[in-house]
Amino acid sequence: xxxxxxxxxxxxxxxxxxxxxxxxxxxxxxxxxxxxxxxxxxxxxxxxxxxxxxxxxxxxxxxxxxxxxxxxxxxxxxxxxxxxxxxxxxxxxxxxxxxxxxxxxxxxxxxxxxxxxxxxxxxxxxxxxxxxxxxxxxxxxxxxxxxxxxxxxxxxxxxxxxxxxxxxxxxxxxxxxxxxxxxxxxxxxxxxxxxxxxxxxxxxxxxxxxxxxxxxxxxxxxxxxxxxxxxxxxxxxxxxxxxxxxxxxxxxxxxxxxxxxxxxxxxxxxxxxxxxxxxxxxxxxxxx
Length: 288
Description:
The protein is rod-shaped and about 90 Å long. It has one domain (4-14, 27-46, 85-286). Helix 2 (23-47) packs antiparallel against helix 4 and helix 5 (114-126) packs antiparallel against helix 6 (130-140). It has a two-stranded antiparallel ribbon with strand order 1-2. The protein is mainly α. 78% of the residues lie in helices and 2% in strands.
């Protein structure tokens, strides 16, 4: 048992060297801030451009000019109010994190079919050709291949190990696979929390904008003893509807992308589980 611990730590170090992917850490905190700022800029300077309104605000207000009479639907979204930049920022977050997860998960899937890769490894192990199985891992280059490669290295060490019985060797291989898996899975699931959060929060923020718009509408109705101001009433209703549309659309897109990515991750996880089972069963049956 004393000899096994150093061997395990050595193999674990090798598996870890394949894993580090720190570039996404900056995205986790920087992207939301930049997306909100970009959302405000789109709302303020593109949707809220003076040229897009019949009666632009001449008061000199910079943060939130109250323009009136949008010339088209794009500039009409500006009347949705100050909640709109937040919703646009959330939409941009969905796009940014969807692209980031697509690139990361596509790389994790590796080259070719995971099922075909596992079958090739099984074939080489059945013929006691561990080096050929390792070569297949180098070709596949995905998360399943990374886990399989870590397990194969320990598998190769255990073939010539004389101080342990078969059951202990199988346990050592299984432990190595579990350690490699623990390094791979967090990378796959990282940043999905933003998509899952936006799925529910987007609707709530849209509801907030809707309530604010309706408050403005009913306030305009009661401003003159029930007669109301038709312009203010229309602006309040448009604010409610624009926020509702943006929030529902953003949440729907986030939900769709979240489900797509979790499905891909499930296929990778299944492949990792199958690879671990392949290694342990192959060793137990081949090197009794």
